[in-house]
Amino acid sequence: MRVVVLSDNRASEAGFETEHGLSVYLETESYKCLLDVGASDLFTRNARRLNIELSDVDYLFISHGHTDHIGGLPAFLEINQKAKIVLSSQIFNREFYSSRNSLRKISFDFEFSTIKERLIAVDEKALFEEEIVVLKPEIRKHPLPKANRTLFKSKGDELINDDFDHELIVIVEKEQRFVFTGCGHSGLINILESVTAEGGGQIACVMGGFHLLDSQNNQEYETREEIMKLGQKLKSRFPSTRFVTGHCTGDYAFNHLKSILGEQLTQFYVGYELSI
Fold it and tell me: Taking a C-beta distance cutoff of 8 angstroms, is the pair 63, 167 a contact?
């Protein structure tokens, strides 16, 4: 399995473009996938530089409805004429907002009916190619990321706290499993317990944002003690799992997790490539 980051906040070289968005290319011997499309068409330019042919992608999986993960959809549709587009059924006809710094809309206005023949809307769980599982993380026993408190969704004419019923997790392979978290709004431990509850082999690699933002502008998120506790749980419960994170995982959280997880934890960036 080959995994390459096409869009992120950071880059390995000056020639790559960056944005507050996430897009990851994944290729196996049998199929080619795109995991999110970032906030714009930026991922397409980075893909060209990396010699990745997006027109060959078989599946596009959208992790949730925020524009930094789905905003590049029109650009993808211009390039690719065949891929099935897999997303939560809860994304349609809904708006999403963030109150961090100021209230702003973070959803993507798009007429999905124009591509209905290519859409696969997932309610709870779906299986593709006999080894790709897409599921809504149902377990919520552990704390959610504190920055979720600044995120809202529309319900009729009002805004309510976003419960992330539109978030999907992508699991690839049956034995040495690769797990894509998107932004990890459901909480990393909740996500991993939801994956484990599905059965299957060992979780070899977890990749994506963990939504552990750095505190700033009088907005306080996870404390050092809370981050260290998370790291200790990951270390004890998933001692052989590799964690690869970026995007919405801040440097403060990353460095404290790194102090516990050591070589188990890596930071990704545009151009980062992983073989599993």
Answer: yes
d(C-alpha 216, C-alpha 224), whole Å: 14
Return phi, psi of residue 154, to 5°: -85, 145
The pTM assigned to this predicted structure is 0.97
pLDDT in tens, the chain (276 residues): 999 999 999 998 888 999 999 999 999 999 999 999 999 999 999 999 999 999 999 999 999 999 999 999 999 999 999 999 999 999 998 999 999 888 999 999 999 999 999 999 999 999 999 999 999 999 999 999 999 999 999 998 899 999 999 999 999 988 899 999 999 999 999 999 999 998 888 999 999 999 999 987 778 999 999 999 999 999 999 999 999 999 999 999 999 999 999 999 999 999 999 998
Backbone φ, ψ for residue 32 (5° rounding):
-125, 135
CA distances from 34 to 46, 52, 147, 152, 170 (A): 13, 11, 26, 26, 11
CB 252 within 8 A of CB 214: yes
Q: Take residue 190 and report the two structure tokens written for it.
A: 């909740």
Contact 182, 63 (CB under 8 A): yes
What are the residues whose beta carbons fall under 8 Å from the beta carbon of 17, sequence distance 6 or more?
Answer: 11, 42, 45, 46, 270
Which residue in 79, 25, 77, 63 sits closest to 273, CA to CA? 25
Q: CA–CA separation, 80 vs 92, rounded Å? A: 22
Element (H, E) at 61: strand 59-61
DSSP state of 84: E
Give the Cα separation of 252 and 90 in Å (integer). Answer: 32
